[in-house]
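Hi,

I'm pasting everything inline rather than attaching a file, because the server keeps stripping attachments. The sequence lines come first, and each chain or strand is labelled.
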Amino acid sequence: MTRADGMSQRTRRRFLVETAALAGAAGLGLDSDPAGATPASMQAAIRNVTGEAKLNKGRVKIDVPALIENGNAVPLTVSCESPMTQEDHVKVIYVFTEKNPQPNVIGVHLGPRAGRASVSTRIRLADTQKIVAVAQVSDGSFWSDEVEVIVTLAACLEGA
Amino acid sequence: MARALINAPAKAKRGEVIEIKTMISHTMETGFRPDNTGRPIPRDIITELVCKYNGEEIFRAELFPAIAANPFLTFFTVATEGGTLSFEWTGDNGFSASESVNISVE
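And the predicted assembly:
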């Protein structure tokens, strides 16, 4: 009787240890997910757009809630100071994220006929992270803005 | 055919900057989520929206999986002349949808 109890104790302990190990492995697996964007891959995505050009700070403004309860649909507005004339207008606005599975979020092509360089949409955010917006003006210069946001419920990467 | 909503003023003064709001029903499946057997669900998103004002392109957006389901986009244009604003969405698996609204300019 006592021996049987001892056995079951041991198996239970072994079971617990093994599950803990499994959970650890699963956790590690998630951390090293190759699909996850890293700050480096975001920088690469930005370089892909700007090339060798200098990225200036300013002119662009990101409007997003600083604390996000649900990362599945986050209202985002990106606007850029510009007279939007034929000589001086915003050509493109790009938005990037640091920790979403892919750094690109949206790319918007505008022209002098837009009247106002501003665009709003709803985005997904997988984690507490940095959002970067980059705009190219008609003279070829690039301008950017970045914000840190806190996400409490991430956009689902797990099954529905 | 996906249901699309366009909100733009029916009337505007010449030279006025008008706001255009668009939304279309679409799941925007990211391609990063596994189904209940663990296999990844293939990506199915809208990749592009083009807006034309009397046939001339005034706005184009490239969309990525980070855009929320039922893509909503707001942008601006100058009301230059009366006519049609046409919208065209294209996406994965041959997805295509279009919608247009009329605007009168005085």
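The longest helix of chain A spans residues 2-31.

If the labels don't parse on your end, tell me and I'll reformat.
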